[in-house]
Amino acid sequence: MSLRDLIKNASPELLKSSVQTGVFYEAMAEVMDAFNAVKKRLDALEEGGIRYRGVYQRAQPYSKGDVVTYNGSAWIALRSLKETEEPSTCDGWMLMVKKGRDA
User: Fold this and answer.
1) Angstrom distance (rounded) from CA 85 to CA 98
2) Organism's domain of life (predicted)?
3) What are the extents of the domains in the chain?
4) DSSP label at residue 62
5) Which residue blocks in the chain are alpha helix, DSSP H?
6) DSSP 8-state class, residue 49
7) What gap in Å lies between CA 58 and CA 86, rounded to an integer?
């Protein structure tokens, strides 16, 4: 019996049988696997976003969403970047706020 059939035809007598209990636990394991996958993805999304990392450091790797200051402008990383990939020199960075003029 499939999970849908089990849910549609659920009754105390049906759930008490050992065969159906096995199906129930198997279905619950599938539900928990799906739940854990969604939770893991949600945690990753909530962990992401914009993170200010300070002044650009050449020896530092950067991740998508990292924001740095470089030559007075703010740049955001569009993907994971290796060391030495400077803002304004590769397509992995996007200008976020352009340097203003001094008064």
Assistant:
1) 19
2) Bacteria
3) 3-47, 51-97
4) B
5) 3-8, 12-16, 18-47
6) S
7) 7
Q: Show the tokens assigned to 15.
A: 């759930």
Task: Match 């200051």 to its residue by tokens.
Answer: 69
CA distance 49 to 30: 30
Place of tokens 């007598």: 13
Class of domain 51-97: mainly beta
pLDDT in tens, 56-93: 999 999 998 999 999 999 999 999 999 989 998 999 99
Terminal Cα distance for the chain, rounded: 76
Coil, strand or helix at 14:
helix
Collapsed DSSP state (helix, strand, coil) of residue 15: helix
Rounded to two decimals, what is the model's pTM? 0.55
